[in-house]
Write the structure tokens for this entry.
Amino acid sequence: MTLKSYMAMLFPAILLATIGFSAVKLSVLGTLSAVYLLPVLVYRCFVVLYPLELGLSNMAEKKFSPWWASHQIQLLYTAVPVLEAVLRMIPGAYSAWLRLWGSRIGSSVYWTPRMEIHDRGLLNIGDNVIFGHKVELYGHTVTPKRSRLLLYTGLVTVGSGAFVGAGSRLAPGVVIEPGAVVPILTDLYMNARFPMTKEELDAPRPA
């Protein structure tokens, strides 16, 4: 891990200290700004300097990982999911929130309060999409393999009018076709397409 990576690990603690300082000062505006504005501003500035590299990389190498730093910037919302659940209860607020992070979000998207998004800048969502209870969207996966720690990052794409059933999990690179209905508790792995094309269905499976 590089020095930059260690520095990125300090961000959640610095953010908590900033929130705590604002709360002690009884500054509602300052506290809300620290919770919802500061991480977004830091993230957007960061990705200008260090664009996220989509595809496969080895995190075990002595090389700075922009994704790792972006993960630290977003860590507060994973640790305290209620902060985003509140936004999902306000019509249009959560879609606007994700657009601030750099995702492409259409109109009239329904986000259930207890779903999880782990990479807020890696979404491409069409219009009139409905997400069921406890759906999880992943813009990354990490897999240990021998002496390597393989990171794969990619967009999660859901076409207009699609319905994603409760408990489904979508991995990086997944593409849901417009109007598709994903059944409850469906797991779609890296770069999967739903529904599969005839060519994909007929393709030979590995032994």
